[in-house]
Amino acid sequence: MRLEISLSNHNPQRWDKEIKRRVQGIHTFQHKHPINQLLVTKTVDIVVTGVYREGFGSIAYCLFGEPILTLEESEVAIALDIGSSTWLITVFNGNGAVIAEHLIENGCGELHSMIAEALDKRNDGVSLISKDVKHSPSLVNKGILEGTLTYGGNHLTGKKFEVEYAQCLEQWWSSQIEKFANYVTSKNYLDRAKYLVAWGGGVSLPVVDENLAQFGFMVLPNPQFINAMGLKLLTESVTGV
User: Which CATH number fits domain 62-223: 3.40.50.620, 3.40.50.1860, 3.30.420.40, 3.40.50.1970?
Assistant: First the structure.
């Protein structure tokens, strides 16, 4: 089987050749058949059609795939990518050229840690049973992704954290959006921007999508997959498929 793909990296000029060297070529892997559980061996020939700047897939998708944004070359949009570790601000024009980038530390992972620490400080009956056990940010994230806002999966340790989520989210959001505003206003990008657009897994967090919409952001559907869909589009443009 032949697979043609495009990839993205924060520094493609530096890592382009190394990424292609490691990824491109014939790879063999094994997995269990979902029904009979027998081991299946498969071989795939990977061809890397391009290594692009991180986030360029998202820009390409918005401008050239599903033309969500109508931008002239002289016009700009501001994109906010909320990830697990950072908020990435990207200013780009109608040709897809990146005008500026700015990284803000403390993405969704910081929010998960804040909620876990807040749960550590609880003094209700259930929490007292496990008072010396530190709560796990990954289990907090699991409860958010499942839409239950519940920590743990059993009656002994399971606990709702709607209150902690609301409190920590307000603190985290206020700090992060202020940093965003400071950057885009100090550089005069906000006044010039025709669009504000948001993508990344953190965009779909409860309340965050509403907050972004209130600030005038276009919140894209399936925001965690926008970059991947854009990279697929770039691959198709190269291969002609």
Answer: 3.30.420.40
